[in-house]
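Sequence, please.
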């Protein structure tokens, strides 16, 4: 296991460098390059000497490869640059916003798992019945619904029409205060979770149906074990393995969904920070949030692989 973890950490480093390279290339494809960034930051009245000084102070006048290696070195020391629009280091902004996004992602993922797994099992146990068909139809509807549209509909129905929940997410500065305003969290969390509940329940249904056809399930039934024990002890544990895979692979999509959800509900997390940075041409903050999202994706994939061995004793990493 230790050897496997070392290899995965090395692979994670390669992935992060690759993300830095792609982000770096896209940044330099921006019309005007570093000079345009300097003009955006310094203002339209900036003189050529002021622009040249800005480029020199930020290493933007150095050869392209030198700039890339400087960027990689800064990323691995968590020096993500300076946001001139917000007049703060990017690392400070990330440390302020990241816990809030982690909270939103954690709650929505937890809600997804809590609802989707029992829902998928229920559909298997009542497959080809009206309830199964009805839940399948609802799953397809939610799965096909764009996140931003679902969020707007929920605001219109539950906030404006029925006045059950606030239309805006909590605006508190700390995670504890955000949790204290739980009513304002309901709509953002459900908006982010609804699409993935639909997808996860369908995968859980297929995985559970496949598990119930395996030889070990027939053997357990032949031994006289109860239906409940066969379904929830023997079949369920093996049916969860593909769900763990899906959870690890879906993490990037959940992160991107958080960007849209935070923008719709004005939730003060990483997604909203990225959205505002894109509008304001805040390139250092854009690069910093992309790199942090890539790191989170790599960590999520690693955790999913580790959970394989927990759920299935036959899986061993060497």
């Amino acid at each position: 296991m230790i050897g496997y973890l070392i290899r995965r950490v090395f692979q994670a480093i390669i992935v992060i460098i690759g993300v830095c390279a792609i982000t770096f290339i896209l940044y330099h494809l921006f019309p005007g390059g570093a000079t345009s960034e300097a003009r955006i930051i310094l203002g339209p009245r900036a003189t050529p000497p002021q622009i040249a000084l800005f480029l020199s102070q930020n290493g933007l006048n150095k050869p392209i490869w030198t700039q890339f290696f400087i960027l990689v070195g800064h990323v691995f020391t968590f020096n993500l640059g300076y946001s001139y629009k917000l007049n703060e280091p990017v690392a400070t902004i990330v440390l302020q916003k990241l816990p809030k996004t982690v909270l939103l992602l954690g709650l929505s993922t937890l809600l997804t798992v809590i609802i989707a797994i029992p829902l998928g099992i229920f559909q298997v146990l009542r497959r080809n019945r009206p309830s199964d068909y009805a839940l399948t139809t609802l799953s397809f509807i939610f799965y096909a619904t764009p996140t931003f549209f679902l969020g707007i509909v929920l605001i219109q129905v539950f906030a404006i029409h029925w006045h059950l929940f606030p239309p805006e997410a909590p605006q508190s500065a700390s995670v504890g205060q955000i949790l204290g305003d739980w009513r304002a969290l309901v709509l953002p969390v459900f908006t982010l979770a609804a699409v993935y509940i639909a997808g996860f329940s369908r995968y859980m249904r297929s995985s559970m149906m496949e598990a119930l056809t395996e030889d070990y399930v027939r053997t357990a039934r032949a031994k006289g074990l109860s239906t409940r024990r066969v379904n929830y002890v023997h079949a369920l544990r093996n049916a969860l393995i593909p769900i763990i895979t899906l959870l690890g692979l879906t993490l990037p999509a959940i992160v991107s969904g958080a960007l849209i959800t935070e923008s719709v509900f004005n939730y003060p997390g990483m997604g909203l920070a990225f959205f505002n940075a894109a509008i304001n041409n805040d390139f250092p903050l854009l690069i910093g949030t992309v790199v942090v999202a890539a790191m989170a994706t790599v960590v999520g994939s690693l955790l999913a692989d580790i959970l394989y061995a927990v759920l299935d004793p036959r899986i061993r990493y060497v």
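The first helix runs from residue 2 to 28.
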